[in-house]
Amino acid sequence: MNRADSFLDQLGKTVMRNIEEMGKIVMLFFSTVSWMVRPPLKIRDIFKQMEFVGVKSIFVVVLTGGFTGMVMALQGYHGFKMFSAEALVGSTVALGMTRELGPVLTSLMVTARAGSAMTAELGTMRVTEQIDALYVMAANPIKHLIVPRIIAGVLMVPILTIVADFVGILGGYFVGVEVLNINPGVFVKNIYKYVELDDIFNGLIKSAFFGLILSLIGCYKGFNTEGGAEGVGKAITEAVVLSSISILVSDYFLTAIMF
Amino acid sequence: MIKLVDLYKSFGDVHVLRGLNLEIEYGKTTSIIGRSGSGKSVLLKHIIGLLKPERGHVFIDDVDVTKLDEKEMNEIRKRFGMLFQGSALFDSMTVGENVAFPLREHSRLKESEIKQIVIERLRAVGLTGVEDKMPSEMSGGMKKRVGLARAIAMLPEIVLFDEPTTGLDPIMAEAINQLIVETQKNFNLTCIVISHDIHSIYTVSHKIAMLYDGVIVEYGTPDELRASTNPVTIQFLSGNIEGPITIV
Questions:
Q1: What are the two backbone dihedrals, phi and then psi, of residue B194, each rounded to the nearest 5 degrees?
Q2: Is beta strand B2-11 parallel, antiparallel or unpaired with respect to B55-60?
Q3: Residue B118, pLDDT score
């Protein structure tokens, strides 16, 4: 086999492997949905995961949202100043946060904090035979482990996005009004004028989809971990990278469809 | 009776089981011995339906479990308990919640009744007052005991033991051996033990099967195996480097 054939062979294998993996993730999604509608739901486990994914991520989301809004105001101000359009800083921050940065940055932060932890926990359960123990006790691991995590991801990422949007706009207001001396009335008025309810609503739909992506990939990678500690580490890296890329790529297509 | 018939299983190019046959009697302790990597755990996972063979059958009371779907298999699994090598306790739950898990999952008992059963099962394995501890606060031997308490929580007919004494000090290993013997007798269990701990096997077993090269090469009582003339069995039991079993 010459070098070109070898390259094509490797390329083909990589493409096939990735397609196969995507298929397995989709299968896991349908399997999860089928277990989601079969009672009883593990309410206690769902709330536990919602606390972990949502409540415990608030600090990092507030920090991310706040500083993003602040830096947007700062950068926007210098840009708009060239056209004497500083009054548009408020609406630019608000539109940027609600449509794009709120959903995307929140999802990326939750991926890093909670998605990776999902993979680590399920991966450790896999290599220490805790998942086998569930099967042996005739308890379905998808219902017990994956359903609560995915429900938590889909419900909590939009709520965190609302927090990020609000704190981001507040950060932008602080920098715009207090630091750069933009008129507060104009700042707020332009937000009301240019930001529509659909901007916020579509941003939340995106974030629910990102919540599904990060929890589904996190669970899939953890659930299929092989090997010991090294395998768990590898699974976490793969989960974070794949989730982040999937969020960014799907963001483009969702934006193209929605806005 | 549990019957394994002409069982084949491979992982890639590695042929682990190559036409294995074995009959396991109820109400007795049957041990399966063999080198590490010889396929003992694979065999156990076929019995409980965690793995499906490429060829062959696993009969439990004349029901071929290799043909069952997940729902049907779960009904069979309710007759089983299993003690895992690393205990496999759920580390997000307390000891009490671990033992209560199968009861909460498959019975309609009241919480007070479940609590009482948890205390009884833990007492049966020699543990008291540990219900609220986390698995991470316990030693390896205590975890094995909790694992056994969880395995017998539903009073199953059949209990599988995956390397029950591996990683334990000799005194704790002997304590676990005695526990297996007592539990088997007290609850009239069918126990299937896989191990390469020869002393443990002689202590707990009514019957021993020697697994080598993907098949059972010898099956008999401990005394019959001690008197074996099979060179594979002789080498394994004596721990001799020289012989038909090669070190890879």
A1: -115, 135
A2: antiparallel
A3: 96
> Does residue A1 belong to any structural domain of this protein?
no
**Could you identify the residue written with the tokens 């830096």?**
A71
Q: Which residue does chain B place closest to A136, by CA atoms?
A: B77
**Total-model pTM:** 0.88
- The DSSP line for A15-68 is HHHHHHHHHHHHHHHHHHHHHHTSSPP-HHHHHHHHHHHTGGGHHHHHHHHHHH
Chain A residues with CB under 8 Å of B49 CB are 135
DSSP states of A208-228 as a string?
A: HHHHHHHHHHHHHHHHT--SS
ipTM of the complex, rounded to two decimals: 0.89
Is A81 inside any structural domain? Answer: yes
**A59-99 pLDDT per residue, tens:** 999 999 999 999 999 999 989 888 888 889 999 999 999 99
Does an H or E element contain A197, and which?
A: helix A197-223
Residue type, B14: V
Name chain A contacts of B50, Cβ cutoff 8 Å: 132, 135-136
Q: Which residues on chain B are in Cβ contact (under 8 Å) with A135? A: 48-50, 77
The residue range of the domain holding A155 is 40-258
Residue A14 lies in a domain: no
**Domain tally for chain A?**
1
Contact yes or no for A138 and B91 at CB 8 A: no
The shortest C-alpha distance from B223 to chain A (Å) reads 33
pLDDT of residue A4: 81
Q: Which of B85, B92, B105 sits opposite A137 (nearest CB)?
A: B105
